[in-house]
Amino acid sequence: MTTTPFGVETAHRTSAAAARATDLSKVYGEGETQVIALDSVSVEFRQAEYTAIMGPSGSGKSTLMHCMAGLDTISSGSARIGDVELTTLKDKKLTQLRRDKIGFIFQAFNLLPTLNALENITLPMDIAGRKADAAWLDKVVATVGLAGRLKHRPNQLSGGQQQRVAVARALAGQPEIIFADEPTGNLDSRSGAEVLGFLRNSVREMGQTIVMVTHDPVAASYADRVVFLADGRIVDDLRNPTADSVLDRMKRFDAKGRTS
Ligand SMILES: Nc1ncnc2c1ncn2[C@@H]1O[C@H](COP(=O)(O)OP(=O)(O)O)[C@@H](O)[C@H]1O
Ligand SMILES: [Mg+2]
Description:
Layout: E1 17-28, E2 35-46, E3 50-54, H1 61-68, E4 76-81, E5 84-85, H2 91-101, E6 102-105, H3 117-128, H4 134-144, H5 159-172, E7 177-181, H6 189-206, E8 210-213, H7 217-220, E9 225-230, E10 233-239, H8 243-255
Helix pairs in contact: 3-5, 4-5, 5-6
The structure holds adenosine-5'-diphosphate and magnesium ion (MG).
Protein name: ABC transporter related protein
GO molecular function: ATP binding; ATP hydrolysis activity; transmembrane transporter activity
Keywords: ATP-binding, Nucleotide-binding, Transport
């Protein structure tokens, strides 16, 4: 059992890998138009840990998330969720795994406008024919601070509230891992801080595992660890980041000419 700087006991925190890439390469196109988006990337995302992925635009951040989440095929190497090797799965099994074990949060909230907040949150489970665990759902809704807004449709909610609905939707099914690609990219700084604080709490209090792409050193400072990508390779790995230490790292990459 460890005590975090926030004084929270985290007995659920283990060193098991929720996801792991080993020598993962992803090549788009052929011949002259070939792009090596990921170049033999090896990285492990531990359970109940919050990891930020940073790097210049085009460095492979989204590709890494998509490959690890089974949304894109890989060219070589290995991508695992828990003990499951994604490359061995046929389409149907892969769809099931994505549905049951993986949550996504995208920059565009992707909420259905005709459904209210609660209906949007439970939609993936409704599609899967699964019943939401009521106690868990209550906890998620209370933690995102949406208890009074469940009957509202997306156009009746602020951007921050809409993104919190999207976060709650990802958490509701208790996935083994959540991938978030710039989840605060469309939010003002106050709404962004709300969402980031909530994501961090879900890691601390619920043992959720989160991997989040961001451009923002302040957003990255909410994470336990920052992995830096450049030209499809991992170039640095920083623990217990602060906005200043992240900014410092980014400046050093810029100095080497790796600008976005
Ligand atoms: N579907 C695709 N077809 C061809 N090239 C792609 C595709 N998706 C991404 N790329 C290329 O792969 C590289 C990495 O892209 P991406 O992972 O989106 O970077 P990031 O998210 O870090 O900005 C870029 O050079 C991009 O142009
Ligand atoms: Mg991207």
